[in-house]
Amino acid sequence: MSEHDSPARPPLPIVVLISGQGTNLQAIMDAIDAGEVPAEIRAVISNRPDAYGLERARRAGIPAEVIDHRRYPDRARFDAALEDRIDRYHPELVVLAGFMRILTPAFVAHYAGRLLNIHPSLLPAFTGLDTHRRALEAGVREHGTSIHFVTAELDSGPVIVQGRVAVSPDDTPQTLAAKVQAVEHRLYPLVIRWFAEGRLRLKDGVVYFDGRPLEKPLIYEDKR
Ligand code: GAR
Ligand 1 centroid to 119 CA: how many Å? Predict the structure, then answer.
């Protein structure tokens, strides 16, 4: 480093929330290990004790915790417990990676501007569950994934970037899911990197990328 360089920022502390397989978590861990994302996963938290992603975290030496939603009488109390656990790790960014719970407005407000979600469709199309099957049934020719800042409604909030895939006539929900996930695994680490580098911010409900407001989502072109 020369005397003109600014000192390196410390890695961005993040907490990742999961409910299942954790392949996106794995992609993020791998990208951090490869030096591609200046972040540090302080903890992985699942609402399901059987989520395989917990095993991935443990293997990587990352604290893996369960807050089982079935043990709480209502959504508000589950979210309060989750928030309490997350905040023990002091993250600057909370990453939802296949976290299959609807969050309360209070939770979302607490993490305003530092809560990201990935959703397997080209939002606003196909919010909710079973997006690949529904995309096939609707006969769309393009499908994909969206990464967005989270707001109170389900799968909504300002979209940062979308990764598109072409739908083939012989796609099944499984083959389409695999195509979309391959894009997700490249895209989520990239977006976390942008956030960690200070290139991505949410201000007054608008996404800013490199200091400029985004009028529409960035489109990720798969160049591999
Ligand atoms: C991902 O495809 C993600 O887009 C989706 O769940 C999958 C989790 O896979 N998220 C949602 O449907 C949120 N509404 P993973 O556990 O292997 O990362």
Answer: 6
